[in-house]
Amino acid sequence: MPSGERTEASRGDLPPAGQVADAVAGHWADHWAPRGWRPYLRLARIERPIGWWLLVLPCWWSAALAATADDRLFPDPVHLLLFLIGAVAMRGAGSTYNDIADRDLDGRVERTRSRPLPSGQIETRAAAAFLVAQALVGLCVLLQFNGTAVLVGIASLAPVAIYPFMKRVMPMPQAVLGLAFSWGALMGWVALFGRLDPPAFWLYAGTIAWVIGYDTIYAVQDIEDDELAGISSSARLFGSRLITAVGVCYAAAVLLMVPALWLAGAGLLGWLGLALFAGHLARQVMRLEPRDGLSALKLFRSNRNAGLILFAGLAADCLWQGFAGI
Predict the structure, then answer these.
(1) Cα(232)–Cα(167) distance, rounded to whole angstroms?
(2) The pTM is what?
């Protein structure tokens, strides 16, 4: 997320009419998009690209790792573009679905009560139609891949479908979010090879731990409201051990990615990328303040940079090894 972005209203303030409290201020959607479109764009979180960044990065990691294993000079650029388009569409669809399922709960949390559905800017039926439209875009993207990749992609809908309801029945719904948001770690590999191999599974496991860690940081913003509303989160579950728990999640993420890189034949630059990724995560843990929501949001958003660092290392390693083998 570019520096300088701030939410429209801080905790305790009411947003301007038609605005959303946790939306990004000064976004083009609020100035250039037709007024009737704006609630839908907010429903899709278009002003918060961090969501699709976190969805597409595991796809790109997996694509780069697969290219290394297949002795290619670089990840398939068409695949990278398709993953990007699909991530934007499916992040929007997932956010819309989540808001439909959570419209009553969102109305009881200060940060989310001004979102389009709980605030009445959009009717549920219209939101459902918008959800279908975004999902169809995602389906069109998925159909560009091989048959096995299509089946693997469709299977991702299972954790996506159940995630919004997990905060009502389990103490750490972030684990289910991890299953959904990490799916791209499988997709890049299967898109190239038409099958799933151990490196993809190791990368998937490590990405799940990463997602649980960063979404625990994100949940710090809502600890007080979640306690009042009875909403479960890993931030509430970990309590006074939150910093340690996030550190364990991040350490697990890096350790689980080690066999993925090893089995795929990563070289020096790939390992350097993983080391810098680990350093970025460690820096987040050291700066985490359990009751500072604004700081937690900045740390959460910084995971885009962490993920790009790892992708750059894997992609550069692929290129370096490719040229070295010529």
Answers:
(1) 5
(2) 0.87
